[in-house]
Amino acid sequence: MNRQLIVAGNWKMNKNLIEAFSLASEILAKAKKMSDKVQIVLAPPAPYLHTINSMSKDIAHVNIAAQNCHFETSGAYTGEISAEMLHSMNITYVILGHSERRKYFQEDHKILAKKVSAAIKAGVKIIFCCGEPLEIREANTQESFVLQQLEESLFHLTEAEMKQVVVAYEPIWAIGTGKTASPSQAQDMHQFIRKQIATKYTTELADACSILYGGSCKPSNAAELFAQKDVDGGLVGGASLKSEDFLQIIQKRAKQA
Ligand code: PGA
Predict the structure, then answer these.
(1) Which string of DSSP letters, residue by residue, matches 51-115?
(2) What is the DSSP letter of 241?
(3) Cβ count within 10 A of residue 215
(4) Who's near 105: CB < 8 A, 6+ residues apart?
(5) Structure confidence at residue 1 (pLDDT)
(6) CA dist., res. 190 & res. 251, Å (int)
(7) Which is it for the CA torsion 118, 45, 240, 112, positive or negative?
(8) Is 132 one of the annotated active-site residues of the chain?
């Protein structure tokens, strides 16, 4: 397997300035001594991106992600941040398609497709989130639901562009609920996503694409999720806000590398 193992922490709208820098310092101090087999990604709130990126710049296996970007390069969009700006700050990734952005900020397939294109054009890699709500899981139509998310917002990319994408499968019913997808539910969907990438692009590209699991990933369930052959890492919300928990999850991933 030649794909990158990744554990990413999505801090969402949490932590004030002092708290954010101390969380970042704690994680970075330990990350420095950790194996570089696992790429660590921190996604702090936008105001802290630049400083935390500078703090991490000497640790090659740590990268920083923004939690959002606009689809235009610049202009009269008060309050927004462009992918160009992220690129100018040397930010590696942007998270796009997160269910909270879809739900609370009305980001539909079309808007997301534009954001995906804007990020790639600016030279910012993407962590593209997909995943179904509970009623879709209960109706057992999660595969077609996720496939539509991929087809409408991601699969317009060229093969070269798609190499800049990490996919995160985040079943909405598992996000922040304490309810995790079982290892086999995660594996089935990750395998399905990989198969769709292979069908749309090539087997080589699908094999090289990191697919992360997100949704109540924590130290107690990380090992069994990471033991699945198509689960390359995690996109962690709540448990990324405590350095010990986040570091333990990274260690679980490193152990199975
Ligand atoms: P959670 O969030 O780990 O708190 O469930 C994951 C995410 O939304 O990325």
Answers:
(1) HHHHHTTT-TTEEEEES--BSSSSSS-TT--BHHHHHHTT--EEEES-HHHHHHS---HHHHHHH
(2) S
(3) 26
(4) none
(5) 58
(6) 22
(7) negative
(8) no
* Three-state helix/strand/coil letters over 100-120: HHHHHCCCCHHHHHHHHHHHH
pLDDT tens-place string over residues 104-141: 999 999 999 999 999 999 999 999 999 999 999 999 99
Which ligand 1 atom sits closest to the C-alpha of 236? 3
Q: How far apart are the first and last CA of the chain?
A: 10
For the cut 90, the answer to whether the pLDDT of residue 86 exceeds it is: yes
- Nearest Cα to 37, choosing from 79, 77, 75, 7? 7
- For 52, 96, 98, the CA distances from 109, given in Å and listed in that order, are 31, 11, 12
- Cα(175) to centroid of ligand 1, in Å? 5
Residue closest by Cα to atom 3 of ligand 1: 237
Q: Note if 170 is an active site residue.
A: yes
Q: How far is CA 233 from the centre of its chain?
A: 9
Residue whose CA is at the smallest distance from ligand 1 atom 6: 237
3-state secondary structure of 142: helix
The two tokens of residue 219 are: 């130290």
Q: Which helix (H) or strand (E) holds 197?
A: helix 183-200
